[in-house]
Amino acid sequence: MKTLHLVIILAISLPFIGGMGFTMLALSHMPNQSSQVVTTNNVTMSSSNGSSFVVVNSITNRIYVTNEVGHTISVIDGNDNEKIVDMPVDEMPYRLAVNPNTNRIYVLEIPKFNNPEQNNTLLTIDGTSNTKVGELLVGPYSQMAVNPNTDRIYLSESHGVNGIVQNSNAQNSTVNVLDGNNDSKITSIAIGGVVTGMAVNPVTNKIYVIHRHEGYLGINGTVTVIDGNNNTKIREIQVGLQPTGIAVNSVTNRVYVTNYRSGTMSVIDGNNDIMLGKPHFLNFSVEGIAVNLITNKIYVAAGTISTLYVIDGNTGNKIAGISVSGWSVDVNPTTNRIYMPDYSFNNISVIDGKYNNIMKVIQIGKYPDNLNLK
Length: 374
Known about the structure:
four-stranded antiparallel β-sheet
């Protein structure tokens, strides 16, 4: 039987504050204390399961960053913030996801000369040996997410009409469900719309897929909710213009979506899959987003203004704005460290979540971010 991991939580009911009006869960947190993680045979609480340019395995305390032009994946040791290795890959890696239970890292590669309808490749990396253990041809314009509890991999693919992929009416998108044991396809789910990101709540076994609808000026994006138990669509939720980033807090059962053109963050109640109040305005061009399950803080990257917003998940209020460049972000909730790669200078910043300051900057490979996705 697998040994899974669960963070200890304390539930606190909160009043209507900050215009959000919902009950949250507050968690006690002491950084770098191993007692924050205990073993159980039931469930894993996780937020780092959707595809991004940087992902954290909070169990092994390893950080993985794609270097698209350099054709490598940088592996960083979170204990001493030193780079372990740059793993070479054949094509251009641009998205990552991790299953902390199996210590598998999944890498989406795009061809060196990308064009519409050209397939991507899914690589499976063994996190212990940092070696490739699997390779699978997948559809074009892929996004992915992993449920560590069911060991299911969710891969979107999009097929345009006459090469058009921006207009949602000229788009066929599906989510393929793979068995993580052997990467075999279980089923496909038709969802439609241009997929720009995915995330999973491993506790509720729901998959959240964001779509942009930029073929029509002023039309908001949507979130498709999929039931992982029977692989069916539950509903569609309207969010802001050009949703780009998505993260799930599986402790509070909240889903957070950044809307690039609206400059806002939408909050979804995962209990009934409805919007909680109005979206929170941050700044135009917000993209990457991550959640610390223990501190209940949300981190939103706004690359064009070189700012990482720190948001209180209890109130929805901005706590801080950290001056750091980059479009992607991820968090290790156990160590309370935030990781943000910068494509301009080919480095990654390590941020202390307690003091909201940059602890260290680590040099990595070329282009740890993808400029073509905006």
